[in-house]
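Journal club prep — side note

Before the paper discussion, L.F. wants everyone to see what a predicted structure for a comparable chain looks like in token form. Sequence:
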Amino acid sequence: MLPRRATRTVHKGPVPIGSGHPIAVQTMTTTHTDDVPRTVAQIRELEALGCEIIRVAVPDRAAAEAIAAIRPQIHIPLVADIHFSHRLALAAIEAGADAIRINPGNLQKPEYVREVVLAAKARGIPIRIGVNSGSVRPRDGLQVAAAEGDLVPLMVERTLDYVHQFEDLGFRDIVLSLKASDVLATVDAYRAVAARCDYPLHLGVTAAGPPGVGTIKSAIALGILLAEGIGDTIRVSLTGPPHREVEVAYEILAALGLRERRRPEIISCPTCGRCEIDLSALVEQVATALKGAPPTLRIAVMGCIVNGPGEAADADIGIAGGKGVAWLFRRGKLIREVPADRLAEELAAEIAELSTPGSRKGDVQ
């Protein structure tokens, strides 16, 4: 792990973004923004999962005006996502957005950019300059121009051109993002812009895909950059409900030691011909038993004695499977042998005891 890249600090509401602060987790709502009750309900669910910044789509005037009704009902900063129309950006600012995101790929007229920047400056809110590989190339209506050369230099130059426009207006409350659907292009773009400015960076892979492949692509791209000290806030883009994005974001940060875990960790083996217990079913039962348990709990569920005792040594509770039995460990110490048909029950009991405040075993809290 390299040290965090030094950046200036930008505040989105009460949340500071920059190298001197924890890497903030954010996501985007999937509701129609003008459906205020559903949007507020979804944001509150995401708040409970640890989401720290929320972004909402603003495709029309109704969505922009809805921000005024949504903002007082939530507890985290709200970012208005703007494309094409500077008037929607102005309306979102007027409605009380804590920040806005605009895209240099589709908001290009200098006079429109100037209006938006000056309005944000007057309100004291930041702007994210959000470049995507899918919108950075010139287009005529829906027809996109053929790519000429590498997209990465185009993304970087378009971003920095926008930055210079903002700076000429005396505006520096800026966060940058340069997202591609390709992992290596994403990494290269962020590395390049990180070397040329000190603005905080919002990391993400755009249009990453469904949860399986999208999680992999995001973990690789964000993992590389974060390990290099690059990145100040992250959004994991997945096709599906936004709670998955928040959960994956925290898993990535926890794996790198950059944020504390939000839920208990299960260590389990992939199984092989040595395994003589139904490990897959047992892991599912353990996951159920862990709901509501302290996030610091670490449970090792291993199919045999090859790696089982070693993994158990680093876990609060561990099992190593055998033929019809398993050995139960507590913080590396073997405590008893358990018949296979009682494993789920015994593990659930151990988890419950460790999760109980004041328990003699409950010092994981």
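L.F.'s comment for the group: The longest strand covers residues 333-339. Keep this in mind when we get to the figures.
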